[in-house]
Amino acid sequence: MPDDQSEAITYLSDPASHGGADVKHLQTHGAHVFLAGETAYKIKRAVAYDYMDFSTLSLREAMLRREFDLNRPTAPQIYRDVCPLTRSPEGGLELGGTGEPVEWVLRMTRFPQENELSAIAERGELDDALAQDLGQAVHDYHAQSPRREADGAQLMADIVTELETAFAGMSDELGADRADRFRILARERQAALAPLMQARGVRGHIRRCHGDLHLNNIVLLDKRPVLFDALEFDEVLGTCDVLYDLAFLIMDLRHRDLGRSACLALDAWLFAAAGEEDAGLAALPYFLGIRGAIRAMVEVQTGRATGEISGHAERARGFLDDALESFAAGPPTLLAVGGMSGTGKTTLARDLLPLIGPPPGAVHLRSDLERKQLAGADPLDRLPADAYGAEASGAVYCRLLSRAETLLQAGRSVVIDATWLAPGERKDLAALARRTGVAFSALWLEAGTAALQARVSARHGDASDADATVVARQARDAKTPEHWHHVDATGSAEETLRRARAALEL
Question: What residues of the chain score a pLDDT lower than 50?
Answer without folding.
Answer: none
